Amino acid sequence: MKPQVWLVRLWAPPARLDRLRRLLSPEERERADRFVFDRLRPPFIVAHAALRIVVARALGADPTALRFTKGQYGKPRLRDTALELNLSHSGDWAMIALGHEHPVGVDIEGIHPPRVSPGMIEAVTSTTERAAFEAMPPERRAEPFFRLWVRKEAVIKALGTGLSRPLDSIDVPLGPEAPADGVVLRPEPDPRLRSWLWDLAAPLGYFGALVVRQPRDQTPLPPEPVQVLTLDELDA
After folding, report:
1. DSSP secondary structure of 3-38
2. What DSSP element (H or E) covers 230?
3. Is residue 13 within 8 Å of 41, Cβ to Cβ?
C-alpha cells in the first residue's frame, strides 16, 4: 500500500479549537498549555488533533483512544500497531504522513530568505553541497537551500535519528526535481534498506518532502497525491 500524505491548515475558530483540544491526550493538552506565547497554542492543537483524526480513520479507531509513544530520538509511534506515521508543521501548515509498511519521514518548510546565511548553509550542508552553494550568487540561494533543508529533514525523520545524525553525512539533490534515488547516507545505517525521496505538493511559499525507508530489493512505492484535510473534516 502506498504512503499517504495530508496537508492541514493550522487554524480553527475558538469553538472548533476547543473541540479539537478534547481529542488530545492529557500529556498533549499539558504541552499545549505550557506554550509561553499564546499564538503557538492553536497550531499545536490543530496539528496533533489532525494526526489523531487521520490515524483513527486509517485504523477504524476512536481518535481519543490512540496511545502514542516516542522512539529514542523523539519520533512518534503508535502503541500496539505497525502503522508508521510522521508529522511536520511550519508557519500556517502541517503535513501528516502514514506508511502502511515502511518507515516514513515528512517535512514542510516555509521559504524565508533572511535565514539563508553562510552559517546556516555551513551547518546543514555536506562538502559537495557547500561547494554548489558557493558557486551560486547569494540572491539565488534561498530556494535551493530550503529544498535541501526540507529533503534532509524528511531523511532524518524517516531514520528516526533526529539531529543526532550529522547533516553533513547526508547528501540530497538541490535542483527543482529530485530523483527518488537521490539520497546518499554516509554511512548507511542499515545496508538492507534504502531511502527513497519524493517532493510533495505544498502551498505557495512552502516546500514539502517525503522519505520512505524500504528494502533495497523492493520496488519503491511513491506516495498517493497529497490530500487536503479540510476544517469540516477536522470537526470530529
Report:
1. -EEEEEES---HHHHHHHHTTS-HHHHHHHHT-SSG
2. none
3. no
Range of weakest confidence among 25-29, 66-70, 161-165, 198-202: 161-165
Structure confidence by residue, pLDDT tens digits, 27-48: 999 999 999 889 999 999 999 9
Is the separation of the CB atoms in 195 and 212 below 8 Å?
A: yes
CB atoms within 10 A of CB 27: 9
E-strand stretches of 16-131: 68-70, 76-78, 84-90, 93-99, 104-110
Q: Which residue has the cell 524565508?
A: 112
d(CA 151, CA 23): 31
Burial of 82 (0-12, 13-18, 19+ CB in 10 A): exposed
* 8 A C-beta contact, residue 83 and residue 59: yes
The CA distances from residue 134 to 85, 117, 125, 140, in Å, are 36, 12, 11, 11
Output the CA–CA distances (angstroms, integers) from residue 92 to 43, 46, 73, 205, in the order listed: 8, 11, 25, 11
- Residue 180 contacts residue 223 (beta carbons within 8 Å): no
Q: CA-to-CA distance for 229 and 128, rounded, in angstroms?
A: 38
